Sequence to fold (179 residues):
Amino acid sequence: MIMRLRPAAAAACAAFALSVLPAMGAQDGPTGTWRVEDGKALIRIVDCGGQYWGVVAWEKAPGVDRKNPNPALRSRPTLGIPVLLALKPAQQGEWRGHIYNAEDGQTYESHIKLSGDTLRVEGCVLGFMCGGETWRRAAPAVAENTHRGPAHATTGSGRAHGSIAEEPAARTCSRIGGR
Fold:
């Protein structure tokens, strides 16, 4: 038996599906892989025991944390460093914590707000002078195919380590704990 929907019924079903899908994504919170506004990096956000942490999972060009206030960390690669720090739920679809900006070596108060497949990320000085950008959720194929590339460490056999975007959240959380 073939079931045919009239155009009005099909439109109603599509509208319902589109209204439910963003809500389903919001249930997961901000976890996942996000493309920063200028497209130069992907940030992977994981839930580490009720706190959300975001790490650089891919970068267009390898960088070094040269402006870090700790001289011992100024030569570390920016790939894998935590940039969203210990974000906790504030209200529906919003989390608060801190953000590290490797471009100036400073840590700021931060809040993020999830709206469908976009994430508004803001850092604030003195709690009211804020600036930020809008990140977009990376397509699963993009997140799965991000690798460290030739400029980063290899396994010794010439193969790149697996992508940070692919590793289990528990591994990301344990690496953050060992900063």
